[in-house]
Amino acid sequence: MAMTELEYGDLLDVAALKADCEAVALAHSGHLLDIRAGLLPILKKVSADGRELAKEKLFQDGSGINCARRISWIQDQLISVIFDLVVRHVYRDKADMVAVSAVGGYGRGTLAPGSDIDLLFLTPPKLTADMHKAVEFMLYLLWDIGFKVGHATRTVDECMRLSKDDMTIRTAILETRFVCGQEALVTELQRRFDQEVTNNTAPEFIAAKLAERDERHRKAGDSRYLVEPNVKEGKGGLRDLQTLFWIAKYRYHIRDAGDLVRLGVLSRQEWRLFEKADDFLWAVRCHMHYLTGKPEERLYFDIQPEIARNLGYQPRPGLSAVERFMKHYFLVAKDVGDLTRIFCATLEEQQAKAAPGLTGVIGRFANRARKLPGTPEFIEDRGRIALADPDVFKRDPVSIMRLFHVADLKGLEFHPDALRAVTRSLALIDHDFRENEEANRLFLAILTSRRDPGFVLRRMNEAGVLGRFIPEFGKIVSMMQFNMYHHYTVDEHLIRTVEVLAEIDKGKAEDIHPLSAKVLPSIEDRQAFYVAVLLHDVAKGRQEDHSIAGAKVARKLCPRFGLNAKQTELVAWLIEQHLLMSMVAQTRDLHDRKTITDFAEKVQSLDRLKMLLVLTVCDIRAVGPGVWNGWKGQLLRTLYYETELLLSGGFSEVSRKERAKHAAEMLTQALGDWSQKDQKTYTKLHYEPYLLSVELEDQVRHAHFIREADKAGKALATMVRTHSFHAITEITVLSPDHPRLLSIIAGACAAAGANIADAQIFTTSDGRALDTILVNREFPIDEDEMRRAATIGKMIEDVLSGRKRLPEVIATRSKGKKKNKTFPVQPHVTISNTLSNKFTVVEVECLDRIGLLAEITAVLSDLSLDIHSARITTFGEKVIDTFYVTDLVGQKVTNENRQASIVTQLKAVMAEQGDELRDRMPSGIIAQAVQRAVPVQKKAKV
């Protein structure tokens, strides 16, 4: 949408600005500092008022590109007025022979509210002192106003010489635009640049720009579906559109991107798509700059809701306003990717015809097209599959699916023209197409391919085929989930899940997932399993639970794919239960027999257990970088092995007492080089829960640790160990027991910046606590991690002994941290006496914050509850913490009034910001006991 001079004139009264500046110059004639001081408030006010008007118009018409053009126009007027004033009243010696030109984004006539202003001052070959001073005066004045100005002062000859050697300078000059001064210099620069630099160097420039783009994408995350995208630099962002225009200007010597239609590079419809994408991305960027008051380019979670409101998005059933906004954003990013592919294809074809012998980025397309044996519809064109003729899809719509199948079989990339033809033929994918047996057979072959199904599925999705062929999948295309846990849109997550499965299937992930790699080949129904993996989140964004709704979708789709009734029910069960194993492994005590029996009752068969394991692994891996770690893998393996033992009938029927007695005997034998007295003393320290749940190797290590502490007269000691494969670090604490012990340890870990993943809590028979805290690993090198662990251990000792006060150290850690108000997570507490035979299970779910675990455990202690084990799980901004507790005499909490009190007090602390409670948290409460080396309190036997 073009804008008239009248619309620009509404932003700023240029004549009045000139008159005001002229009056200042005349009033302070010859006094430079006084002139600058007089001009500054006038220019600041005009600039601020003009940008505020541009903001108002952005809210009125919603056009981002017009907002950027308005701000650029305002900037032009300010610079022109300043230049005119300087050359007429301040520096008169040929200063008017300088040309002021805009480069970079400003050179395109667009400026975001917080953008830098890039200027090129062109001078004649002989630079006078006044020319230099005039440029300096202008720059100082612009800086004083508050602009960030990138600048260079050069002659035309210097520009030519530098642009031949420096691709950045070459790109800047490509977008040179005259602003004020000696226009002839800018015209000469543009003419000579076209003649001396761009002629016969297009392949070099294109290769450099595409390589620069690829590196930029890599740094920004290499995906257009990141849920906190970089609007300017990210894949599918503004810079990708700008790169296309740079290449077009360089290759075709055009000044207007609209000329791409005249040249046949883009169709009129594609050009309209270009304009719409550009306008939308500019609108988002301008709103971001206005909202944050700075040149923010990443669309962070905390500003997404406000941007959505500013752009007028409204919630719909199953989708919030911000999720609808972000879905639109990702659809636009996809359009940018499509345009990039179409543009580069046309460019490559034209370049290949013009210079078939070229090498490099363009030269790889020099080989001639050849027929593909057995597939008359398609040809191979320089390593890519292409259509034999334009009417292939019209004659047989199923050829759309066949195109992707053949590409998979032959290991070919897709010719952009073929994908363009697919996109234009999407209307052919109708009800008859979806019900076609051959189309469904081909799709299933693509999905279960042993080559690279993720790659082909992603191309199908980008071309719009997946969403048309599976309308339920189409509903989640570009859908984001507004939380910190999921890094990608739902469709991208599902395709990445298939990619992880294929990686394990090909034996390429044994080092990361040894158990999954071992069990996957023995899974009986590979077809059904791949379908379940692709569809496990297909019902996201609905009001109904997505697992249950997804199972319904599966029952509808699977028969169409050609799966029988048994396979269909298997897929439906896997989708309905796809979160089960993850939640049990991460939030339940896996040493509690009831946990395993309950889980086994739901799984029922070994084959289901295998599939659920691998599906869970793929699902977590595909959430995003850094979400998977070895500790989660270990939890899943533990749950798998324990359940496998039960399902195969191998679970021991020997009584708990007898098994504990046997474990004690094994520990005694393992301490065979000790005296009989020490063997007896240190074996009798432990109760049944410890003997039955701790590995013998760890029991021996603990025995040595306790004996060394006793010999040294230490009542308080810590021991650390790292597990690189599990990505976990273990800190064992020996201390006089106290109800608040876990709370203080958790607070000390929070103060040291450690995230607790698990806690094993035991009491010895002489009234001491032997607690093992597992924290997430931070450093890849063991030596670095050991130093960090030692620091955490020292913090725990300092807080327990009273050398440091817990409220103070937590307050220091929290200082400067913004409270997370972006994600409203309602505090939720569940109390269950059915999840364990011996313990009451208290599960809390709420928004995470520093010191939260310490505060929750402090409340549990205040309520006279004895914590026997804890599972600490973080899902982005949300935590789900589970505590296995009893009352102080070792019994479950069954009284309803008491349960209600627990819920009320826990919800209260979860809703607090933490400051008040931290002030009440004690430090050094066992310091005196430590000094006396006597226990404070002895827990009841369990």
Tell me what the structure shows.
With 942 residues, the protein is α+β, with helices and mostly antiparallel strands. It folds into 5 domains: 5-199, 2-Layer Sandwich (Beta Polymerase, domain 2); 215-354, Nucleotidyltransferases  domain 2 (Four Helix Bundle (Hemerythrin (Met), subunit A)); 367-469, Hydrophobic Seed Protein; 490-651; 714-932, no CATH class. Helices cover 56% and strands 11% of the residues. It is built from 43 helices and 16 strands. An 8-stranded antiparallel β-sheet has the order 9-10-12-11-15-16-14-13, with helices on both faces. A 4-stranded mixed β-sheet has the order 3-2-1-4, sandwiched between helices. Mean pLDDT is 86; it is low at 355-366, 914-920 and 930-942.
Layout of helices and strands, plus pairs?
Elements: H1 5-9, H2 14-27, H3 32-61, H4 64-90, E1 99-102, H5 104-107, E2 117-123, H6 129-145, E3 149-155, H7 156-165, H8 167-174, E4 177-181, H9 183-198, H10 202-219, H11 238-252, H12 259-262, H13 268-292, H14 304-310, H15 321-354, E5 370-371, E6 378-381, E7 384-387, H16 392-395, H17 399-410, E8 413-414, H18 416-424, H19 431-435, H20 437-447, H21 453-462, H22 465-469, H23 471-474, H24 490-505, H25 514-519, H26 526-535, H27 546-561, H28 565-576, H29 580-587, H30 593-603, H31 606-621, H32 630-647, H33 656-670, H34 676-683, H35 688-693, H36 696-711, E9 717-723, E10 728-736, H37 741-751, E11 756-763, E12 768-776, H38 782-801, H39 806-814, E13 828-832, E14 840-847, H40 852-862, E15 865-875, E16 878-887, H41 896-911, H42 915-920, H43 927-932
Parallel strand pairs: 2-3, 7-8
Antiparallel strand pairs: 1-2, 1-4, 5-6, 6-7, 9-10, 10-12, 11-12, 11-15, 13-14, 14-16, 15-16
